[in-house]
Amino acid sequence: MRTKYRQKSHHSDQNKWFHCVRCSRPIVPQAIGTEHRNHCNWCLWSKHLDDVPGDRAADCGGAMEPIAVWVRRGSDWAIIHQCRKCGELHSNRIAGDDNEIALVSLAVRAISQPPFPLEHLQLMGEPTDPGWLHPNNSNSPNP
Question: Alpha-carbon distance 128 to 134, whole Å?
Answer without folding.
Answer: 12
